[in-house]
Write a structure and sequence with these properties.
The complex is a heterodimer of chains A (115) and B (107).
Chain A: E1 3-7, E2 10-12, E3 18-25, E4 34-39, E5 45-51, E6 58-60, E7 68-73, E8 78-83, E9 92-98, E10 104-105, E11 109-113
Parallel strand pairs in A: 2-11
Antiparallel strand pairs in A: 1-3, 3-8, 4-5, 4-9, 5-6, 7-8, 9-10, 9-11
Chain B: E1 4-7, E2 10-13, E3 19-25, E4 33-38, E5 45-49, E6 53-54, E7 62-67, E8 70-75, E9 84-90, E10 97-98, E11 102-106
Parallel strand pairs in B: 2-11
Antiparallel strand pairs in B: 1-3, 3-8, 4-5, 4-9, 5-6, 7-8, 9-10, 9-11
The chains are: A mainly beta (115), B mainly beta (107).
Chain lengths: 115, 107
């Protein structure tokens, strides 16, 4: 069974940093592209970042470019999102999702940016 | 960046009714358009991939059509459990984007 489990969320002050992780199981992680998608409270879905299977293609939404870094460790079946210079508007549930078509999603981890 | 615009933003419908949600792209995206359903406090669920391809386990009343810039999600014979917010999403080119969502209320 495919499973994606996010972790690392929490309360952080504006300007702070946080590293999210997504642990994958039930499939050959190294064969699939991955994404981060977020959802602010009461708002719609926002695509955040993409990484292909070999980490050779990476992209970000303009809203996070220069502040967030996506990475993966295929040996550990894990996806990461390093978030720096956090702002109040980054407050959201962050999901990891597999494939171009986002077939599989995790349960999400809540990031709250507040003083 | 390709902008996806959904319509309507909100729709109130009765059970057994047929529902159509549209998604328009700001430029051609071929068939790289996917549809999701999200219920409160749940992760989104993929309903249709690549405009019209069905997903295992998704009820057959959900179907998709379109290509280029105009796409449609159709729900035939709506059921009470279909109350949710529906999103389109493209993977044609980076950056990927989502539509703003369509909230479906069941009367």
């Amino acid at each position: 069974e495919v499973q994606l489990v996010e972790s690392g969320g929490g309360l952080v002050q504006p300007g702070g940093s946080l590293r999210l992780s997504c642990a994958a199981s039930g499939f050959t992680f190294s064969s699939y592209s991955m994404n981060w998608v977020r959802q602010a409270p009461g708002k719609g879905l926002e695509w955040v970042s993409y990484i292909n299977s070999r980490s050779s293609i990476i992209d970000y939404a303009d809203s996070v470019k220069g502040r967030f870094t996506i990475s993966r460790d295929n040996a550990k079946n894990s996806l990461y999102l390093q978030m720096n210079s956090l702002r109040a508007e980054d407050t959201a549930v962050y999901y990891c999702a597999r494939d171009q078509e986002l077939l599989w999603w995790g349960q999400g981890t809540l990031v709250t940016v507040s003083s | 960046e390709i902008v996806l615009t959904q319509s309507p933003d909100f729709q109130s419908v009765t059970p057994k009714e047929k529902v159509t949600i549209t998604c328009r792209a700001s430029q051609s995206i071929g068939s790289s358009l996917h549809w999701y359903q999200q219920k409160p406090d749940q992760s989104p669920k993929l309903l249709i991939k690549y405009a019209s391809q069905s997903i295992s386990g998704v009820p057959s009343r959900f179907s998709g059509s379109g290509s280029g810039t105009d796409f449609t999600l159709t729900i035939n014979s709506l059921e009470a459990e279909d109350a949710a917010t529906y999103y389109c999403h493209h993977s044609s080119s980076l950056p990927h984007t989502f539509g703003q969502g369509t909230k479906l209320e069941i009367k």
